[in-house]
Predict the 3D structure of the following.
Amino acid sequence: MTWTRRKFGRLAGASVAALAARPARSGSRARVVIIGGGIAGATVAKYLATSSARPDVALVEPKQQYTTCFFSNLYLAGIRSLDSLTHSYQALAKRYGINVIHDTATTIDPVAKSVALAAGGKLTYDRAVVAPGIAFKYGTIEGYDEAATQIIPHAWNAGAQTELLRHQLESMEDGGVFVIVAPPNPFRCPPGPYERASLVAYYFKQFKPRSKILILDAKDTFFEQDLFEDGWNRHYPGMIEWLPAQFTGGIKSVDTKTRSIKTGGDTFSASVANIIPAQVAGELAQRTGLADQTGWCPIDPLTFESKLHSAIHVIGDATNAGDMPKSAFVANSQAKACAFAIASALTGSEEMMPHLFNTCFTFLAPNDAVSDAINMKPSGGSIKITDIFFSQVGESDEVRRQAARQADGWYNAFTQDVFG
Ligand SMILES: Cc1cc2nc3c(=O)[nH]c(=O)nc-3n(C[C@H](O)[C@H](O)[C@H](O)COP(=O)(O)OP(=O)(O)OC[C@H]3O[C@@H](n4cnc5c(N)ncnc54)[C@H](O)[C@@H]3O)c2cc1C
């Protein structure tokens, strides 16, 4: 069965309405500490604070403002400003009474149920939610470590890294080669590296038309490959070349001085390079034993409670959540299900089967966007896809223009849902 957007929206709304309808908890307020104020953490904070369980909610996040990774490829193309992608925590604090603490959580003691902060002090909790996003597996490409990101950015967390990459692209001579190293699965935003290639090609086409883009992939296939290859042929013929791991022998090392990237066979020289390394759950999850040997955090698919530590829930990119891709939409969907489960646990009310979704808009060019919508549900101890919708090769220009307009509308509504 294919999945229509109308049905998708109806179900997404239903789970939120059910959350708001929970009965209030009597007695003293339960304490929930949320670590990480990204998409997952900010959403769960807001939906818990507005649930009728009315817990005392503390949100720990070092950054004063959050810049979205989604739409950051439009910034690289010169189409959006970084300011337009940056959101404050003021509404969460003022409108919903969330205690936003700008600090870093250093450890969690699951026995004492407390979280230690870098600036000193501890927060105790009845329930904790860990939403630290991703960390990079430095060392899988020789020569690429944290220091190297200041020369060759990954730009896979938005902000200073994305700005650095944009400046390098602006300074690049016409006729240069931009090399993107795409990571192995699983990683944050499966279409992201290929959307990046598309939108940088759009920028090159206008300002540096003799330039080329080379994607050195750690994989042999990639998400929505047919849609991307069709888009690249139509918009940027001859500009983007994609080399799978089976062709190059994989990416072995990088020399930041010469910006050269050595594969199993050839060595490629870049004018500008963007290395997106292999990924695992955010550092705190590794340090506190919430991640298993896969590098990701196993969770109960109904409640998002850790399978390794009770009373700690993990949401967002850090999870190993079955078929769920690592996207902002998924992080938001998981956060609502988790808020509901925590509110139920705190009030002693009945748990419900969560509705879990992903929808994603991807730009091939500013007026040519494709989308996917996926409906998932807990099944057999994991989370499985039940319905899926994908854009198709050969859709009319008008359908694609409409998807690009919908994407803009989605960005505004979505960030309002998380931070507004
Ligand atoms: C180029 C690109 C394009 C993308 N496009 C899309 C898209 O179109 N649609 C979509 O749905 N998704 C998209 N994504 C994916 C999306 O950005 C992520 O899936 C989403 O941000 C995950 O949310 P999260 O809350 O798990 O992690 P994050 O948003 O990264 O948040 C984690 C937060 O935790 C904080 N933190 C980490 N450790 C600690 C600690 N110890 N103490 C306190 N705080 C801590 C960090 O500072 C950070 O703010 C894209 C990603 C990229 C890179």
